Amino acid sequence: MTTSNTGTGDVDPAVREELGRLRDSIDNIDAAVVHMLAERFKCTQQVGHLKAEHHLPPADPARESRQIERLRALAESAKLDPAFAEKFLNFIIAEVIRHHESIASGTDDPANGPAPTAH
Ligand SMILES: C=C(O[C@@H]1C=C(C(=O)O)C=C[C@H]1O)C(=O)O
């Protein structure tokens, strides 16, 4: 019978140390991703308010196509799976469009980010 390693077993200390070092980097990267996404959503919330104010549609498929082409090329040169990069961007854009629809209909959650200041 095989036993699964739950992470609490008798692991070589050198392996445990290497794992801990790698996980520290993963935690730093995850924090950076969260901060970058938060900044991106701050911008897209402002775009949403601008669009609602000027009666522009929430989604812009032509812009999205250009972004996807660009991101796929960037992913390829970074040795990241372009299909994954595309899926990831589409996932984010879908959420942004949902926010833009809520802003346009006046049902947006203020927790998603403030309206831009008056100009
Ligand atoms: C942010 C915008 O709105 C939508 C969201 C996009 C995004 O998250 O990058 C891109 C295009 C639009 O469908 C925009 O038009 O720039």
From TrEMBL:
<dbReference type="InterPro" id="IPR002701">
    <property type="entry name" value="CM_II_prokaryot"/>
</dbReference>
<dbReference type="GO" id="GO:0004106">
    <property type="term" value="F:chorismate mutase activity"/>
</dbReference>
<dbReference type="GO" id="GO:0046417">
    <property type="term" value="P:chorismate metabolic process"/>
</dbReference>
<keyword id="KW-0413">Isomerase</keyword>
<dbReference type="InterPro" id="IPR036979">
    <property type="entry name" value="CM_dom_sf"/>
</dbReference>
<protein>
    <submittedName>
        <fullName>Chorismate mutase</fullName>
        <ecNumber>5.4.99.5</ecNumber>
    </submittedName>
</protein>
<dbReference type="Pfam" id="PF01817">
    <property type="entry name" value="CM_2"/>
</dbReference>
<dbReference type="InterPro" id="IPR051331">
    <property type="entry name" value="Chorismate_mutase-related"/>
</dbReference>
<dbReference type="InterPro" id="IPR036263">
    <property type="entry name" value="Chorismate_II_sf"/>
</dbReference>
<dbReference type="GO" id="GO:0009697">
    <property type="term" value="P:salicylic acid biosynthetic process"/>
</dbReference>
<feature type="domain" description="Chorismate mutase">
    <location>
        <begin position="13"/>
        <end position="104"/>
    </location>
</feature>
<dbReference type="InterPro" id="IPR010951">
    <property type="entry name" value="CM_bact"/>
</dbReference>
